[in-house]
Write a structure and sequence with these properties.
Layout: H1 3-11, H2 19-33, E1 35-39, E2 42-49, H3 52-66, E3 72-75, E4 86-90, H4 93-101, E5 105-106, E6 113-114, H5 126-140, E7 141-144, E8 158-163, H6 166-178, E9 184-188, E10 191-196, H7 199-208, H8 212-262, H9 270-281, H10 287-294, H11 298-314
Antiparallel strand pairs: 1-2, 2-4, 3-4, 5-6, 7-8, 8-10, 9-10
Amino acid sequence: MSFAQKVKTEIISKPIKDDHCKIAFLSGVMRGSGVLFERDGELGVDFRIGTEQGAEFVSLLLKSLFNYDVREISVSENNLSKNDRFEISVTGKEAITILKTLGILTGDDDQLTVDFDFYGKICKKDCCLRSFFKGLFYASGNCTVPTQGKSSSNTGYHLEFTFSHVASAQATADKLSQIGLSPKVTSRKGKYVVYIKSAEEIKDFIAFLPAPVSVLSIIDLMINKEIANNSNRQKNCDLGNLNRQVTASINQINAINKIEKSVGLKTLKDDLKTVAIARKNNPDQTLVELADELGISKSCLNHRLRKIVEIANDIKG
C-alpha cells in the first residue's frame, strides 16, 4: 500500500460526527472528482473514489445526510488493478438538492449555475475546512515519500491536488497558503496541479487534516533519512580528512627526502631533524600518533613539519 493510500485509509477510518463536516467532506470529494451531466432531462453528477471502502463511506454519508440510496457504483475496469476507481452516480431530483447543499450549484432550480467558490460558506468553520480537504485529498490528491530501505533517489517528498480549471487550483493554493504552507501551481497534460515538495510542509498538511498515524509515519521517515544523511556526511568528512592527511604525509616525506639528498638531514636543527627522521620512519602514522611518540603536542609537530617543507621548497633543484 502506497503512503497516499495509507493516508486515505486513515481519513475514512473514523466516522464524521457533525452534519456540517459531513457536507464539507462530500463537497471536497465532488469538487475533486465530480463531473456534472444531464441524462433524460435530469441533472446528475458522477464522481470517482479510489477504493471500495471509500465508495461505501461516501454512500453512507449520502444516506445519512439526504436519505439518498446510491443506485449505481461501477468499477472503471473489469479486472481490479491499482488504477481502478469506483464511480458513483447521483441522479434524479435529489441530485439538485444534494449539489446545492454541498455548495456546488446555486440559484433557482430552473436557473442553476455552478458556484466556483470552493472555500465559501461550506468551509467557514475550521473543522469544516479540514473535512473539505479530507474529501478533496481523497478524491484528487496524491502523496509520495521516499521508500525506506531503498535509494532516496527513487522518489522524494511530493504532495499534489489535480484540477480541471486553473481557478480551482489557484483557490486551493491560496487556501493552503493561508494555513501556513507554500504550494506551487503548474500545468500538466491539460490539468492544473497544486503541489508541495517540502517534507515538513507535507507533514504539517497531514497533521492539519488530521491523520495522526500517517504523521508519525512521515516523521519516522524524516528522522531515518536525517540519520542516514548525517552518517553519509560524517563518512564524507572522514574520507576528506583522510585524503588530506595522506596528501600532507606524502608532501612531508618528499620534503624530507629532498633535504636528505641535497644537503643532508644533519643540516637541520636538532628538533627538526628528530621530527624528520620520525616522520620518515613512520609515514603511515597520524599527527596525533607521531606527536605522542615524540612527546610533543600536535600543534608543535605540525609547526615543525611545515618548517621542514618550507626548507625543502627553498632548496633549488
